[in-house]
Each structure stands twice: as C-alpha cells, then as structure tokens.
User: Fold this.
Amino acid sequence: MLDSVGLLLRWLAAQDSPELVVISCAKAPAISTPPGAINAILTGCIAQESDGVAAQILAVGARQVSIHTCGIHKDAETKKASIWKNATPGLVTDFHPTRKRLFRQGKTISLPHVPLPRRAVLGFKITSPIDFHADDQERTAQAIEALSISDPDQVFSAPKGVQLDANGCTLCGVCVKACKNDALQIQTDTNNGRERVEKLVLSQRLCRGCHSCIDLCPVGALEATQPQTWRTLQDPEAQLLFQSETRKCKNCGARIKSIDRELCALCVHRQENPFQSVPLDSVRKLLRARE
Ligand code: SF4
Ligand code: SF4
Ligand SMILES: [Zn+2]
Ligand SMILES: [Zn+2]
Assistant:
C-alpha cells in the first residue's frame, strides 16, 4: 500500500515538472503560492519526516522545494531543513510568503488526501526514477542515484540494515525463509546432477537490520559486522556470505557440503547406531560437527 508521501510522489510525477513544491507542516499558517507551485501540507511536522523526502520530491521532477514550517519544534525543524538543503544545495530553500496579491494561485494538496492522477485514472503508466510503492529507505536510495548526490553518508542519517558475516554455515536455508525482506538467497551453480556450488548471498539494499536471520540460524553462523551505509547500498552486487561445494547424500538425498563423502552425517550416524532414535538437538550437533 502507498504511504502518504508515496501518494504525493505519484501525483507529482504525473504533473509536468512543477516549478516549485512547498512542503508545509500540518500546523503551519495558510499561504498563497504562485500559479505553477504546489503546496503540499504534511500530516504532521516537517521535523518528523525522513531525511530523504525533499530529495524524493526533486527526483520525481520538481525543480525547487521550499520549506514552510510551523515553528512548534523549531530546533528539530531547522535540523531537518539543513539536512534537506545540504543534500541538494541550491534546490531546497526556506519559504518566504509573497506580499503581492495573487489573482491566480497554485494548487494545495493536504496529505494523505492526494487525488489519483488523471493519467492513472485513464490507465496510462506514470514513469519515474522513484518506485512509489517502495519504502522510504528504498525511495531515498533511488533519489540519491537519480540526483547523483555525491556523499549521501555525510548528509543523511544511516540507513537501516546490517552487513553480515557467516561462519560455519550449513546452507540449511532457515535464514532465507526468516528474512521478510527477501534480502538473503541461496544461489546454486550446478556442475552436473549431483555436485554443485551453493552460495548464501545478501542483497544489502533489501536488508533492514531486523536480526531475524541471526536469531534463527540453528548453528549460530551469522553475525552482524557493521551497520549499512548509503554508499554500500549503491553496490548492485549481492554480497557473498558463504559458499560450499555440495552433493546429494546417496541414501536420503540431503545436501552434503563435503563432496568427498557419499552419505550425510545423519545417515552415517544411523548406519553406525542402527537402533538409536536421534533427538532433534543431537541432529543439529551432528550436522554441525560433521559437515
Ligand atoms: S547462515 Fe545459518 S540459517 Fe542461514 S543457511 Fe547458513 S546455517 Fe542456515
Ligand atoms: S537482518 Fe533482517 S532484513 Fe537483514 S538479512 Fe537478516 S532477516 Fe533480512
Ligand atoms: Zn513543524
Ligand atoms: Zn543422508
């Protein structure tokens, strides 16, 4: 579902590059804007908006952004305004009301009540470098790329996400299923039917640092090394965390990491102890110790 900024971005992208978008706090005094300008009234205060909102609005085609604050959270508003201004120098300014009487005025949009763009109603595609359905972090990453912001780590606060290390991974795939953001994958290069190379890879751009993968790994193989940065998010390559050659167990078909053995650790144990039932914890220990 689109959030209210996503709705605004979709609407803006459907217009012909608005000359000026004024971003107003919900409680900022009413203003008049010149024709061609759009006054977007937020649901709250600018201070609560993300670091990337102004960049996202510029990336969908606005030529200039102006900030119209309520003044209730003055320090936090000034801080947010300086982040927006530093990220895109010269393109974000403070709003100064005009003294001239305006016979024609720009449009006002109060979030979250953003009209559906006519183009969308008519079924035409709205093209934009920003995916309106993506979350704020991904939209900000896309805006950084679209606007070629040179040093995003210096202006925006750190993105959510972790860089991961894997040691002693058994390529069981639990972390892949645990990740709600599809950031982890097991990729396979097959040589022939039985032998192949399996890789656990992380798409850093999709990780939001929830730690579910770390908490649920049955052998404690994963560790968060350092927080993500905007710079690392720009790397299109998935990060290789672990790789191993594997083959199918001759007996049960389970994957074995070592290719110089025919049977998986569990089948070896069953062969050696034919009358013993194996509890789950021991299975985990066995798999870890022997593969
Ligand atoms: S990191 Fe842990 S959960 Fe993920 S595949 Fe490796 S062993 Fe399984
Ligand atoms: S920390 Fe969370 S979002 Fe990141 S890879 Fe692990 S499960 Fe996925
Ligand atoms: Zn405010
Ligand atoms: Zn087996």
In short: The chain has two domains: 4-155, 162-290. The mean pLDDT is 89. The pocket of iron/sulfur cluster (ligand 2) is lined by residues 162, 178-179, 181, 183-184, 202, 207-213 (CB under 6 Å). The longest strand covers residues 239-248.
